[in-house]
């Protein structure tokens, strides 16, 4: 069974969409480090608090290597740092993370980063959801989730919802 480690953003987005079930369907076991659980419970800004204990798809696990966490923390936030350190420790098949700098750090560390858009595309390709367009638009409009027009077009094309020329597929 595959193991993934998640940062805050993918969990917040999937919970908002009511699609936490996609984690188990696509990946098997999903771990979150304590800093991510804390960021979800005590969010900055206008987000509603989320208790990871309410999601049976998630298991909280702390990274053991505090020096590795500290090295990531020189450039990243606490949740991102713990998520990357934990992903390395458990040899996760992927780390679920959206932020650009954290994704770059994941790649440098030899990890496979997958963002919430990637999760939605995989879910559509596996026929777990009918559309990427609708949930993606909800994230953009309801959570102010930033998605460049190029990334949106690519996701829709990969999901078979937009022709490569930029025209919508029938």
Summarize the structure.
It contains nine helices and five strands.
Structure in words:
This protein is globular. It has a domain at 3-117: Rossmann fold (3-Layer(aba) Sandwich). The protein has nine helices and five strands, in the order βααβαβααβαβααα. The model is unreliable at 166-170 (pLDDT under 50). It has 170 residues and is of the alpha/beta class. Helix 3 (34-41) runs antiparallel to helix 5 and helix 4 (66-73) packs across helix 5.
Which terms would index this structure?
Rossmann fold, globular, about 170 residues, 9 helices, disordered C terminus, alpha/beta, single chain, five-stranded parallel β-sheet
Structural class: alpha/beta
Just give the CATH class of one domain.
Alpha Beta
State the CATH architecture of one domain: 3-Layer(aba) Sandwich
Task: Please summarize the sheet with the most strands.
Answer: 5 strands, parallel
Topology as a string of helices (H) and strands (E): EHHEHEHHEHEHHH
- Write out the strand line-up for the largest beta sheet, numbering strands in chain order: 3-2-1-4-5
Poorly predicted sequence stretches spanning 5 or more consecutive residues: 166-170
Shape call: globular
Secondary structure tally: strands:
5
Q: Indicate the proportion of strand residues.
A: 5-15%
What would you give as the CATH superfamily of one domain?
5'-nuclease
- At the fold tier of CATH, the topology name of one domain is Rossmann fold
How many DSSP helices? 9
């Amino acid at each position: 069974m595959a193991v993934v480690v998640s940062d805050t953003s993918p969990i917040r987005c999937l919970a908002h969409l009511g699609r936490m079930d996609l984690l188990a369907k696509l990946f098997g076991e999903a771990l979150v480090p304590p800093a991510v659980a804390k960021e979800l419970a005590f969010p900055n800004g206008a987000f509603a608090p989320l208790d990871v204990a309410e999601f049976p798809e998630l298991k909280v696990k702390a990274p053991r290597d505090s020096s590795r966490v500290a090295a990531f923390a020189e450039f990243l936030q606490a949740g991102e740092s713990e998520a990357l350190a934990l992903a390395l420790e458990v040899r996760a098949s992927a780390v679920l993370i959206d932020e650009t700098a954290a994704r770059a750090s994941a790649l440098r560390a030899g990890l496979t980063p997958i963002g919430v858009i990637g999760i939605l595309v995989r879910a559509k390709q596996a026929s777990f959801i009918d559309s990427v367009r609708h949930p993606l638009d909800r994230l953009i409009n309801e959570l102010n989730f930033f998605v460049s027009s190029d990334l949106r077009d690519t996701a829709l094309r990969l999901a078979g919802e937009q022709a490569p020329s930029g025209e919508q597929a029938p």
